Amino acid sequence: MEYKASSETIFYQIEKAIKQYRVMAQGNLNKLEYKVTINQILLMLQIDRNPEISQVELAELLFKDVASVTRMIELLVKRNFLLREEDKKDRRKKALKTTDKGKRVLELAIPIIKKNREIAQNDITEEEKEILFKLLGKIILNTSK
Amino acid sequence: MEYKASSETIFYQIEKAIKQYRVMAQGNLNKLEYKVTINQILLMLQIDRNPEISQVELAELLFKDVASVTRMIELLVKRNFLLREEDKKDRRKKALKTTDKGKRVLELAIPIIKKNREIAQNDITEEEKEILFKLLGKIILNTSK
DNA sequence: CAAATATAATTGATATATCAATTATATTTA
DNA sequence: TAAATATAATTGATATATCAATTATATTTG
Predict the structure, then answer these.
(1) Chain B closest-CA separation from residue A26 CA (Å)
(2) Which residue in A24, A101, A124, B115 has a CA-CA distance of 20 to 30 Å to A87?
(3) What is the pLDDT of residue B1?
C-alpha cells in the first residue's frame, strides 16, 4: 500500500515541534527550586486568576481529562500548592485556591514560561505568527466533530 | 505579573490542533474490529517497513521514551501483532517483525490514517502546507538543544 | 588483551491519559 | 413535588510518559 512517509506530513512536524517545545520548556522550569511541571503551573495559573473555575472547565482549557485534573489537583493539594474545599453554592463542585506557596512558585515560573515562548518564537514575525495561528485554526475546524 | 493569555499563543493553538487531531483520528480508528491506537499502528508500520530498526530508533521516530517503546512492544507481542526475538548480529538488540495479524490490521488501518490526514488538511493548499511546515521548522530549530 | 566506556533494552517508581463506572448533588420534567 | 435527567467530581483499571537505575553485550582505549 502506497503511503506517505510520516515524517513528511504536517502532523509529524506539529508533533515534533510541540514535543521539542515541551522538553525545552520543562528543562528551563527544572532550574527552579520547586519540582513542578509546565502543566502544573498552567493549572495553578488558571485557578489563581479565576478561583471560581470548575475542574471540568480546567480540563477543557488544558486539553485534559477530568480524571487527570482530579489527580493533578490531588497532588498539588498534598504538596501544599493548592487548597481544595467544598463549594458553598454548588456542593458538587470544589472551591480551589492557590496557597502562598503556590503563588510563590507561580511568580517564579511565569517569567520562565514567557522566556520559553520567546525562545521558541525567535525570528518568527508577527505576520508569520498570524498565518501559523490561522492555518492551525483550519485544522482545528476540520477536526472538530 | 502581566502575562499573555495562553489561549492567544501559537503554542496553545498547536496543542489544540494536535489534541483534536488525535481524538478525531483515534475515533475513526476505533471503527476497526481490532482495538488499537494510532501510536501502535505507527509503531508497527515502522517495523513492518524496516525490520532492522532498533527500539532506540523507534523511540526517536515516534517521539517517545525507549521505556515506553519497550512496553508498547510488549503489549503488541502479547496480543500477537508483533514477534520479538534476539538479534543474531547484535545480541543487545531485539529483532522485531509484524505477524500476519499485525500485517492485517495495518492493511485496514492505513487507509483510515490517510483519510484522517485528508480530513484534517481539508481546504489547506499545498502552498499553505509548505508555509506551515516551514514555520514549525523554525520552532523546531529554536527549541533544539 | 583487559579495563573502561558506550549502547540497547529492560525494570521500577511515580505521574498522567483514557475510558468506564460510581457517587453526590442540581436541575428539569411529568 | 417526585421521578427522571444532567452535571461535577471521584475512583478503578490499564496504558503511556518520564526519569533513574540496572543488565547484558559491544566497542574503544590504554
Answers:
(1) 11
(2) A101
(3) 40
Statement: the CB of A84 is under 7 Å from strand D? yes
Dihedral sign for Cα B31, A143, B132, A46, please.
negative
Strand C reaches within 7 A of the A70 CB: no
Fold of A6-143: Arc Repressor Mutant, subunit A (1.10.10)
Task: Kindly list the residues from chain B whose CB atom is less than 8 angstroms away from the CB atom of residue A137.
Answer: 13, 17
Under the banding of pLDDT at 50, 70 and 90, the label for residue A85 is: very high
Per residue in B18-70, pLDDT tens?
999 999 999 999 999 999 999 999 999 999 999 999 999 999 999 999 999 99
Q: How far apart are CA B128 and CA B130, in angstroms?
A: 5
Domain residue ranges of chain A, discontinuous segments joined by +? 6-143
DSSP string, A90-133: -TTSEEEEE-HHHHHHHHHHHHHHHHHHHHHTTT--HHHHHHHH
ipTM at complex level:
0.92
Average pLDDT, chain B: 94
| Contact across the interface for A9 and B117, Cβ inside 8 Å | yes
pLDDT at A99: 98
* CB-based contact A62:A86 (threshold 8 Å): no
